[in-house]
């Protein structure tokens, strides 16, 4: 049994206790002190004082902040009794006294004031600290108050992570294949540096929740047999300004000592949100500082000397600050997606190892009934089935337990994302293929990696995954037009094939419109409006998106012109998308039917399809916005 270290040496604690008691005593004292001074003098209400003044009874008064003392005349008009009253804030008082012939003077604050002040200012914080320390001494151990800047990274050293290997992760074969290389780097860094190869510093794991990003990171550490530091992005930005950045510094310091090792940052988006969208009044200072510190640390060490590989996970890669993706930082991105049928079966096998299965269980059938489940959902499913088996008094988990569990889990998930009907699936398939085909021929659109109609979440029914080929800060007008057309590709495909549109394209349209608006009002890409910056939104200054710089107000005519230009741009993208899809109608059908059958198209198969996309006949492109520049094809 390990000896538990006393959180604080007993002596220190004794001293702390004494300090605490003394401070409490002083506080109590300070509460009673002020009221003790004027006890001997008879007190009268303020109204009485005023009456006396008005009746010319008061001879003289000394006006203090907390008290007025005044001497009244006796019957002979000689100086008599002294009274005290508590003043009400009253600017007319000097006038009143003056008018009624009272001799008066202001009294400086009483002598003991400094003492009371001191007590008032110092004691509460001291007590706070004392109580805090007391708390920590009880529960928190040495961690906490004084080690606030210390990173809270949980460190799993070899022994623990060695248990987790790539065998524990299934259904994400491509991600595993990419990470094998990282394992090699960690195992034998020398082999690579000798050749002058640059070892990657950062790898970003991108994918929806519960797909095993954390598990993969642990598996990399386990395979390589190196320590694993894990912290969540949200833990960095918890409390006070400056804490996050010192945590980052500290984390890297610890890690460098243990090199080679892995740092895993979950929820990278919590710190890595694009800085340009930060608050206007520096409301996100803390996060920004933390992010800057992270960037500094990643730039700071020489990868050929210190093998620290930073793995990070996010399910919102689009919101990340581009600075994070620059070479030498998270320049590798690994997609960790929801598993397909085979993947789901493999994951079920892994999690079923821990439970006793009845003869009749067919995990393949279970996998077939659970499209859209992520690894975590499947793990949950197996557990649910085991619980049901226990409730039903089965000696092993049967297929019927699984069936019931599937229904339960789906019911739970359906609250979040509803299942698609067959007709909806068709529409979604054509919609997604529409994006992909248009994207394949338009300039400046990112390379399409994957099309999927495996449902995920409420917002996107299916999706087309585009990874940026390179980090881009500047895009030219042609590329932006290409993006607009690609965004409209989904809706255009629906129009072309089904003759009507659905609500599914709402988000695409919003993005396309926003982009077009930016082109016109911020990038000066409209011939009509010229290279001026307009902002007609007059957004409030505290909006979350931080587009706070209120620029010049826009006249009605200008607003109309902007509208026309924006509409022209979007409409033009729409026409381009339609033209491309018309020219490739047969291909659209083929790919969409394949997608319906397989749920996912990616890799080589996708590439083959996309290579077959023909650029449209240019004459088919009708330019809608009359004032827009012609698009050279
Ligand atoms: N591909 C997988 N293979 C096997 N088990 C998996 C897989 N994906 C998820 N799991 C199970 O689900 C659990 C949770 O997954 P994990 O925390 O790694 O997901 P995540 O992608 O990091 O999720 P989040 O984005 O919510 O942090 C794992 O501990 C594991 O039991
Ligand atoms: Zn779409």
UniProtKB/TrEMBL annotation:
GO terms for biological process: protein catabolic process; proteolysis. Gene3D superfamilies: 1.10.8.60, 3.30.720.210, P-loop containing nucleotide triphosphate hydrolases, Peptidase M41. ATP binds at residues 207-214. The chain crosses the membrane at residues 15-33, 118-136. Its cofactor is Zn(2+). It is a multi-pass membrane protein. GO terms for molecular function: ATP binding; ATP hydrolysis activity; ATP-dependent peptidase activity; metalloendopeptidase activity; zinc ion binding. In the central section; belongs to the AAA ATPase family. Belongs to the AAA ATPase family. Homohexamer. This is ATP-dependent zinc metalloprotease FtsH. The gene is ftsH_1.
């Amino acid at each position: 049994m390990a000896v538990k270290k006393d959180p604080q040496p007993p002596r220190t604690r004794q001293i702390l206790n004494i300090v605490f008691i003394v401070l409490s005593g002083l506080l109590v004292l300070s509460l009673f002190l002020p009221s003790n001074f004027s006890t001997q003098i008879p007190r009268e209400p303020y109204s009485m004082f005023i009456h006396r003044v008005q009746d010319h009874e008061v001879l003289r008064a000394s006006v203090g902040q907390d008290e007025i003392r005044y001497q009244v005349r006796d019957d002979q008009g000689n100086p008599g009794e002294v009274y005290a009253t508590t003043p009400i804030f009253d600017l007319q008082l000097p006038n009143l006294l003056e008018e009624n012939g009272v001799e008066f003077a202001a009294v400086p604050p009483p002598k003991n004031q400094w003492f009371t002040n001191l007590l008032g200012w110092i004691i509460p914080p001291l007590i706070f600290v004392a109580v805090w320390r007391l708390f920590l001494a009880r529960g928190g151990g040495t961690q906490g108050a004084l080690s606030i800047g210390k990173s809270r990274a949980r460190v799993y050293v070899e022994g623990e992570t060695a248990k987790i290997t790539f065998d524990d992760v299934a259904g994400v074969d491509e991600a595993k294949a990419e990470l094998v290389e990282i394992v090699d780097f960690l195992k034998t860094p020398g082999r690579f540096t000798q050749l002058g190869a640059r070892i990657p510093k950062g790898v970003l794991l991108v994918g929806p929740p519960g797909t095993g990003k954390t598990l993969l990171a642990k598996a990399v550490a386990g395979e390589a047999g190196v320590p694993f530091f894990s912290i969540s992005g949200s833990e960095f930005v918890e409390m006070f300004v400056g804490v996050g950045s010192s945590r980052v510094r500290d984390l890297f310091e610890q890690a460098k000592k243990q090199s080679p090792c892995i740092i895993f940052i979950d929820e990278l988006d919590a710190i890595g949100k694009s800085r340009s969208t930060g608050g206007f009044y520096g409301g996100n200072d803390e996060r920004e500082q933390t992010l800057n510190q992270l960037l500094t640390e990643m730039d700071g060490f020489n990868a050929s000397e210190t093998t620290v590989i930073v793995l990070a996970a996010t399910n919102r890669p689009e919101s990340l600050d581009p600075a994070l993706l620059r070479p030498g930082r998270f320049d590798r991105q690994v997609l960790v997606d929801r598993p397909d049928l085979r993947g789901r079966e493999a994951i079920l096998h892994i999690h079923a190892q821990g439970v006793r299965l009845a003869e009749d269980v067919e995990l393949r059938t279970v996998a077939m009934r659970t499209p859209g489940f992520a690894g975590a959902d499947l793990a949950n499913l197996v557990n649910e089935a085991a619980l049901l088996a226990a409730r039903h008094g089965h000696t092993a988990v049967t297929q019927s337990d699984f069936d019931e569990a599937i229904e339960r889990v789906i019911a739970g998930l359906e609250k979040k994302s509803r299942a698609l009907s067959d007709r909806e699936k068709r529409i979604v398939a054509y919609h997604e293929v529409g994006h992909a085909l248009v994207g394949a021929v338009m300039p400046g659109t990112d390379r399409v990696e994957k099309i999927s109609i495996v449902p995920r979440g409420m917002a996107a029914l299916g999706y087309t995954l585009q990874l940026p080929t390179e980090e881009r800060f500047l895009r030219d007008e042609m590329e932006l037009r290409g993006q607009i057309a690609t965004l409209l590709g989904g809706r255009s495909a629906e129009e072309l094939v089904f003759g009507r549109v659905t609500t599914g394209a709402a988000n695409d349209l919003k993005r396309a419109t926003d982009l077009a608006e930016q082109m016109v009002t911020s990038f000066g890409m409209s011939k009509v409006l010229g290279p001026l910056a307009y902002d007609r939104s007059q957004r409030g200054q505290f909006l979350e998106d931080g587009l706070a710089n209120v620029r010049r107000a826009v006249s009605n005519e200008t607003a109309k012109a902007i509208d026309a230009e924006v509409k022209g741009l979007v409409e033009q993208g729409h026409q381009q998308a339609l033209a491309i899809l018309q020219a490739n109608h047969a291909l659209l059908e083929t790919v969409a039917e394949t997608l319906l059958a397989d749920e996912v198209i990616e890799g080589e198969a996708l590439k083959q399809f996309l290579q077959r996309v023909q650029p449209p006949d240019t004459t088919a492109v009708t330019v809608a916005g009359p004032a827009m520049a012609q698009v050279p094809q």
